[in-house]
């Protein structure tokens, strides 16, 4: 009996072996998204993720099939690539027949491995096109038919229509001037918020596509929408800077129904719609929303509603020329956070603490009398005495005001605004009738999937990573904003470019930034200068600052590096070159020393708000460094795009720029005219000085750090590169010392002060509990979170190759630092002498998941890695004695024939294929 069971187990195992060892197609992406609706790229790019139970698996060929029908792959193909010999599995271009507006296309793929063994067909995925031609728009723009008052209440727009046939599929396409929420038969359409998103509206206005097949019914249907001021006409920036894109809200909606008999029908906004003022009495981005439930319109989004008192809408002639599909992920609800406790402040305010500085809004469920009011103010912090603190919000009220109708339990949440807060203050005559159970905080951010994780054996570092992630969540609401709470919330270009690489570790930001970079190009001035904020709401003269405008070159190149997205370089190349040419036009003898520049913004000196008096790093020195850097990135892009003429032209220019830097800002022995950390960091990172002078420049940087008692002194432009430069030039331990410093200025000082997001200033709250100047003191401002890039790259060691053909993690470079000895006794004391004993990080790429996990085990370091199928990796171990390195407890020379070994005087390099590996290194 036992023998029979053993035979059965052997047979089962033998049967399962091919499935275990073969290559599998796990996930399909079209335009980098899962089953996207409404794309307007006529040649969509297709990606698939592979897996296998074997090591060193690669793809040798693929075959893609596209069908009109989910089940039509045998007889209804519209494109078959046939077998294509290629190891490419990312961003393969569809090359079938021309596609049609709103048509859904189904696709699948299979691959052959390195041994010529074919996989099973993948599961079927799809993409759906948007409206591809202006003539396909059959609907009309409509706006409210009544006169607005000064509060600008949100209009409600509605209509009804009848369906008499059986529905096969139905889609609705929606956009607006202002924000919209749309409804069908009593239900909200989609789960997106703040639609249609924020772009340079006059040039690029997004529409969204939703599948409403299951929301429609035979017979009568009710369709409606609410409109809010949003970015379109709310005050943005400072003063009375409102109506930037227009003063009147409008809606454009088009429904396409496909019936089972093969016919189609289009229903859209037209003169037959009606309008009325909704219960939303006012809604502005900075000031919040007021809802008077006594003025509710009843069941206006249901059929049979009596709308005789409603006014006919006005038909507008706004056209369709600037309409584009939505490429990036929409803003959606995410975490739901319950309040921790109620606080009565010394001033007598009733405060609710949610325990996390977040961005979104508070949902309220209350019961009271008609006319009762509930007013909610929002704040990030309490002051030194424990009172509600809103001075740093400047002119932004951040206040939601609800008036009850008295008809049982009532639910309130804002529609067209959001707040940045940890604490809320309750006012109104309902104040004493509420409890914690009446409230919950809803977190809003663009629906980018999480890609990275980073944890260590140090709790403070883990909290820092938490703060970086939450700073990103709170400021990635369709555009990368500087802060989410005060009267600003703008897409500052400098903040975005310094944080991009960190953002790319934490979340999938390919589409998010590709969309935003198109607005950078759209709002770029004719002379090539790039505005301070995108979309540009600050005016024509707010442009051209070094380190800010360089977003035009830095982010496209970084997108290419971490996603292998060559299309972004093609799309943005003209913008990149225009920015470089602008700098050249403002230079004399290749020296750019004119114009306004923010410089090393908000570095550690509290008296420096860019008035120049405390700027310890020469702003024109900084400008020259970024001038050279942008030229180098333009050269890099030109090489990828095979634009040899530009490679030659700008390579010659780059040498002139660096020569001018040496002549103007450096003494013959390599000392810079500004002796700051930022000056040396930028000069070293951007290769501004001759190689023979770089070693002593690094020594000067090190001495500077020591002279500040092992503290940094950098601002927005110097901070992202500080630790990277130290690690590159052999001072990783000093970089780690800076990271672990707990006293001001440092990354961990805010953590020890209770921060749950990244602060705008190194000392937003001073050690004595008081605040920095309220005019510029956000407690959710991600720029200094750029240290996350170094944490992933150097502590965990996850790096992408920058060689052509290897970008996007096709080739993975692992450089973990296991040794992190303290240099400063003070810092060692702050951390109770604790060493870093473990770092566990992962990153989801277009090829699959990378993991880099090291842990100390007595006198050994255990290092576990995972490498995705269809990629390869090189691991750089800081150990020259190969016999100390083992894999699965075997010497690496004999453990795996596929591991190739290379040694030099500083390290051992292993070249490996896909799969999981367990290494150990003896101290």
From TrEMBL:
Region forming the signal peptide: 1-23
Name any one GO molecular function. hydrolase activity
Short name of any one Pfam family annotated for the protein: Bac_rhamnosid_C
Q: Domain of life of the organism in this record?
A: Bacteria
Instruction: Identify the residues that the record assigns to the Alpha-L-rhamnosidase six-hairpin glycosidase domain, covering every copy.
Output: 449-794
Question: Which residues belong to any copy of the Alpha-L-rhamnosidase C-terminal domain?
Answer: 805-889
User: Which enzyme class?
Assistant: hydrolase
Domain Alpha-L-rhamnosidase concanavalin-like span(s) in chain numbering: 345-445
Q: What's the catalysed reaction? A: Hydrolysis of terminal non-reducing alpha-L-rhamnose residues in alpha-L-rhamnosides
EC number(s) stated in the UniProt entry for this protein: 3.2.1.40
Q: Is the keyword Membrane assigned to this protein?
A: no
Q: Which residues form the Bacterial alpha-L-rhamnosidase N-terminal domain?
A: 165-335
Keywords associated with the record = Hydrolase, Signal
- Report the protein name in the record: alpha-L-rhamnosidase
Species source reads: Galbibacter pacificus
